[in-house]
Amino acid sequence: MSPLVSVFVGVVNQQRPSPPGDRFVSTFVREETHKTPESGRSQRGDAGHDSSRGRWWKVGLLAISLVAVMASVTAFIWGAMASRKSGVAMPHTITRGTLVVTVTEQGTLESSKNTEIRCEIRGGYGGRGGRSTVTWVIAPGTIVQQGDELVRLDTKRIEETVSLGKTDLNNEIAQLAQAQADLEKAQVALDGYLEGRFRSKMQELDNLLKVFTRNLLSAQTMLRSSESLFEQGYVTQLEVEGMSYSVRRAELEQNVTKTEIDVLARLTRTMKLETLNGQLTATTARVAGREAGVALEQGRLDLALVELENCVIKAPGDGLVIFPSTAKWKDAPDIDVGASVYNNQVLLLMPDLFQMQVKIGIHESIVDDIKPGLAAKITMPDRTLDTTITSVAALASPAGWWTGNAVNYETIVQLPSVEGLKPGMTVDVDVIVARYDDVLTVPAFAVVDTDEGHFCWVQTGEEVQRRDLKLGASNDQFIVVQSGLMEGDEVVLDPTASVPEARELVGPTLVHTITRGDLPVTLTEQGTLESSDNTKIKCKVRGNSTINWVIESGTKVEAGDELIRLENKQIEEYLHERTKFAHLSRDSAITFRAQATSAGLALSVYREGTYRTELMTLEKDEAIAEANLRSTQNLLGHARLMAKSEYVSELDLEEREFAVRVAKTDLEIWKTKINVLKQFTRDEQLVTLKGNWEAAKAAANGHEEVLTMDEERIALARKEMQRCVIKAERSGIVIYPGSDQWKDAPDITEGATVHNDQVLLLMPDLSRMQVKVGIHESMIDRVRPGMPATVTLHGKTLTGKVSSVASTAQPAGWWTGNMVKYDAIIQLPSAEGLKPGMSAEVEVIMEQHDDVLTIPVAAVEETEEGYFCWVGTAEQAQRRSLQLGDSNSVFVLVEAGLQEGEQVVLNPTAFIEEAQLMSVASHGSTSQRPD
Questions:
Q1: Is the four-CA dihedral 450, 453, 459, 461 of positive or negative sign?
Q2: pLDDT: is 479 or 812 the higher one?
Q3: Cα separation, 114 vs 166, whole angstroms
Q4: Are the CB atoms for 323 and 738 separated by under 8 Å?
């Protein structure tokens, strides 16, 4: 322990009992009084400031309590109080004894091993409900048997989910049955085409080809025979031409059939198979989609039925039931009738009463003195238990208004296994920090702290004698005496009440001697340590998510350790739905791609098949028409020859002429059809088929794009499922990010809602620390990067520098006291023991004036006419006009008006009438000036 430097300023501290439930840290509380500098004391502002700061920190480090003989303590406390009232010196005899230094905290008993009763309702249709409502909860402290009801949750929404789930499941089953029937039809259609229609059509065309081939051979034979008989004069030229047309017609019929066979085997079959296979594959995908739909709805229904049963939570075993502790920042208990609870929330605890502990908060000012293994005493109304400190958190608990902005470290004290301990019992924990045996001690009431040191007054006969003390460790009642007293000495308690010298020593000084010295101009602000290099652990799940579990702040982790688990039910539902829709999208994509392929093949079928067969058929009909025309023309010529010999009547001749005209008309018709087919029908059909093909390709591309999007969504959903469990990328310490001052709850806690890209945790680099402070707008122009700064922590002082100053102010509001401040960063050197969250006092050295005249601020009076002071004494004071320069909170630089060695009156308006009149005149004049 550090020696006590500052105990009292001549005022007795009256210790008051802490109100029930408040934390009590035994400490010295020094009453602040204005102490003006005296002649002979240091005139430097920095010296006075350093002394005050040193005392403050050492008092903070000695925030401790006494475990000692309370009878003797009570005796000298009442004696000291009596001396103050009567003015009579009350003595205390210095003896040797044991001084125990303790830290006293209040805590609550809890079990270190609890069976947690959690909410297992993921909520609403498809997991989108989020929270459930408590309709009944067992009274805390109830002894229950296994199977007893503990909590009932509102079932209305889940009952609706069950009803809706049954309807949706039946719809999906019906759609699955239809899809399975379509799949069977598609398979039958494919098999039927390959084994039936295609083979039948091919066989039919093969038979026709054989017939047409025989016809062609027969026609060719007859043509050759006719040509031979014509040469012998047995047949006419007309008959030869007729046989020639028969051969041509047979050739055309054979070519048409061959073309139909080729198109059927090469194009039509491919196009038909593409369509049928596409329908089969698409229907298979549709069946898979409907099966996924059935599984989705069945899963929803099963979950709803399980959750409906889980709405009545029963005891897993025998034991005591208690409520979990409510966080300090909450304005209502977590578990109560009507409370809204979330999935995985701890609703009740069933503690193991033979494994009990106390959790206390140790203030940052003394946490370095608290180590695991230190002895501790647990005081309860009916007993006292001796135990030891089990663990001390490596990092402070998050501070906020709910902790009074105090920075505390969570400390666990494990209790021995004894009967009768119950969770929730309030206990006092006395941690024994140090023990000093066989030492001289002096009551703190007997010590006076001054800038010159520590003093006490010893009773020697009828007089009292001042003693200069060197002190050591202390508790809140006694201090170890290292030198200055001997055993048996009688010291005066509360000397300022009965010893004039003591009152004079700590009393106010009326004059100050002007000297030369150094004047540092500093700015002091409070800040908090943080790392300048943090690995940010962010939420990578889109939208809002709920935290199911989060690691404790300050935990040391290794790479791969779990840090946070987010609720993933909605993502699971989304993944199942997208899987179902992806199958259906694949159904559409395959169907439309098959249609596009068929539309493309239809072009080839038309060019190489349909068009050619139509053209050859027309050419065959044209050849027949030509043969018919030639035949009618020959018959007409023969009839005319016979008419000349009057063997044919005029009527027969007219019939022959009419037959020729009809044959010519038929031939023209077939020629026109061929011409229309070549010039118009072919192009029109090709344009139509191409349009159909392009439309089918566009439709197929659209459905394939939908399928691609579904697959991308599925892949992203799977990634987000993995991202719901956030793991450490490296080893290190994990802390929570600081919450904004205006918030009424911490950002990161179980049940909290977080959003995409939100910083959930930080892994700080402890070798690169900084302090962020707020600089008031009135001083911001004087603070620049590069300025030196002294950073005072509990137990150490570091020298840093201003690394940056914000160009814009922080948002001001009630949470900042409506003050406008600018963030400034103070970079610190690398040092051991620095932890994020530690409080720090930052003193920025803005200017340094060496070897200058200074005057205390308390000696200067500002008026409309300028600055004045009064030289001399209060009885004989002379007003002096001053020209002043820079200043700090204690001293002002004197540019003109005073000389070294002169004495000025402190607080002149309290003693000098002229100063009072000038002050009244100045304030009255100011109040009458317009705004």
A1: negative
A2: 479
A3: 39
A4: no
Q: Is 118 helix (H, G, I), strand (E, B) or coil?
A: strand
**What distance in Å separates the CA atoms of residue 922 and residue 474, rounded to the nearest whole number?**
50
Q: What is the DSSP string of 830-848?
A: --TT--TT-EEEEEEEEEE
pLDDT tens digits, 671-720: 999 999 988 998 999 999 999 999 988 998 998 999 899 899 999 989 98
Rounded to whole angstroms, the Cα distance separating 5 from 451 reads 10
Round to whole Å and give the CA distance between 148 and 139: 13
pLDDT at 399: 66
Q: Do 740 and 746 meet the contact criterion of CB atoms below 8 Å apart?
A: no
Contact 422, 89 (CB under 8 A): no
Secondary structure of residue 193 in the 3-state scheme: helix
Token pair recorded at residue 694: 């392009």
| DSSP line for 221-256 | HHHHHHHHHHHHTSS-HHHHHHHHHHHHHHHHHHHH
DSSP bridge partners of 766? none
Q: Strand, coil or helix: what is 459?
A: strand
What pLDDT is attached to residue 8? 28
d(CA 242, CA 249): 11
**What one-letter code names the amino acid at 86?**
S
Residue type, 761: L
Tokens of 258: 């061959």
Structure tokens at 922: 């100045």
Those residues whose C-beta lies under 8 Å from the C-beta of residue 251, and which sit 6 or more positions away, are 216
More confident residue, 35 or 203: 203
Cα separation, 73 vs 82, in Å, equals 14
At how many degrees (to 10) do helices 198-232 and 237-263 cross? Answer: 160
Q: What is the pLDDT of residues 285-316, one digit of tens each?
A: 889 888 988 988 888 888 889 889 999 999 99
Burial class (CB in 10 A: 0-12, 13-18, 19+), 235: middle
Provide the terminal-to-terminal Cα distance of the chain, rounded to the nearest Å.
57
> 393 and 88 in contact (C-beta within 8 Å)?
no
Residue 522 near residue 845, CB atoms below 8 Å: yes
| Token output for 417 | 């296994």
Closest CA to 553 of 773, 396, 363: 396
Model pLDDT for residues 230-241, shown as the tens digit of each residue? 888 888 777 788
For residue 37, give the nearest of 52, 57, 23 by alpha carbon: 52
Find out whether 386 and 427 touch, Cβ atoms under 8 Å: no
pTM of the predicted protein model? 0.62
Q: What are the tokens at 334?
A: 């977590």
What count of other Cβ atoms lies within 10 Å of the Cβ of residue 310?
Answer: 20
The values of phi and psi at residue 445, to 5°, are -65, -15
Mean pLDDT computed over 381-403: 80
Dist CA 853 CA 876 (whole Å): 23
pLDDT tens track for 328-378: 655 556 788 888 888 888 899 999 888 999 999 888 888 888 889 999 999
Among candidates 374, 375, 365, 370, which has minimal Cα distance to 408?
A: 365
What confidence tier does 33 reach under pLDDT thresholds 50, 70, 90?
very low
CB burial readout 411-450, b (16+ within 10 A) else e:
bbbbbeeeeebebebebbbbbbbeebeebbbbbbbbbbbb
